[in-house]
Amino acid sequence: MADRFGAGNHGGGALHAGDRRGHDAAGGASGDAAHRAAQGSGQRDKLDADARIDGYDPGAALGGLYRHLYALAGDFLDQSADCGSGAGAGGGAKTPWGQDGAAIEAAFPQLKDSILVVVDGQTPELAEDGAIRLSEALGKLGPKGPVISVRRPDGGPFFDRAGLLFADLPEVQQTPQRLIDAQPLLGGLAGDPSLHGIATTIDTVADGATRGTQDASRLADPLSKLSAAIDTKLSGKVQYFSWQRMFSGEKGSLAPPTRRMLIVMPRMDYGDLEPGAAAVDAIRAQAAALGLDAAHGMRVGITGEVPLADEEFASIREGMGMIGLGMVAAMLACLWLATRSAKT
Q: Are 254 and 177 a contacting pair, CB within 8 Å?
């Protein structure tokens, strides 16, 4: 019994020893796994730390690039809204000139979407003649042409009849006196406006001044201007002579202008990136066909809301290639920063 009990005790001890060894083995295995996991986590942390130390953190790099691009785009849009197109609706609304433009447009809605054509001439006669001929040519383009209507804000039959009403009283009083002083010249030129008539008129005026029937002082200014023009022409230089300047003052509201204007209402094609381009091209073509150029003493300029807006859109069209290349380059840079590989 004692032996069996002792053996049993030994067997129980062996059993307990085996249990302890099993538990120790299991504990050792789990400890090894935990140790390996801890080592792996530490290695990953170290790699991440090394990557951050080396300056490469893909998420941070992409986030920083995105923030920079977003800020640049916001600045560009703000500048475009404040200083950009004053021609379009709302363009430059925060600036003084933009507010003035909006006020003028509200006061004169008939000027919206218009083209201003400026005709400059070496003499008032050339400017007036160029404006008349260009206005008539644009009006003949047809009801379905690129031009809807043409108006002259500074000339035409009304100003021919009532132009004196817009001058100051002293200027109006001086104008008849100038005509009276020039009457001897005007009378002869009205009868014979040729070179022979000019020579005959001057001879008659000089003879009257010699005999005392004419006041020579009244004709001093017109004759000096005519003499200067003749001398310049005889010297072989180009000279533009103005009869209006000869018999009028050089300053004041009644001084003959050398600049005339046309307000053209174009037929807008909103399916095109430049809606008023057809009207602008038609104006330039008509001006060239009529000889309104520097060789004939004239110059035609085109401005206004429509051509300014068209030029801005044209500049965008011209830069679309560079913009596209920039976008592709930015996308490739983002992909490379995210992967650090050229395979993608």
A: no
What is d(CA 132, CA 105) in angstroms, rounded to the nearest whole number?
27
Helix, strand and coil in the chain, % to nearest 5: 65, 10, 25
pLDDT digits (tens, 9 = 90+) for 291-317: 999 999 999 999 988 988 888 877 766
Asked whether the beta carbons of 126 and 305 are under 8 A apart, the reply is: no
Q: Is 83 left (phi over 0), alpha (psi -120 to 50) or beta?
A: alpha
Look up the pTM and report it: 0.62
| pLDDT tens digit sequence for 203-235 | 877 777 777 766 667 667 777 877 888 888 888
Give the C-alpha separation, 310 to 193, whole Å.
47
Residue pLDDT, tens place only, 129-150: 999 999 999 999 988 899 999 9
Residue 150, phi then psi, degrees to nearest 5:
-135, 130
Helix (H) or strand (E) segment spanning residue 287 = helix 277-289
| 3 state SS for 231-245 | HHHHCCCCCCCCHHH
Cα dist. 316→270, 274, 306 in Å?
16, 11, 16
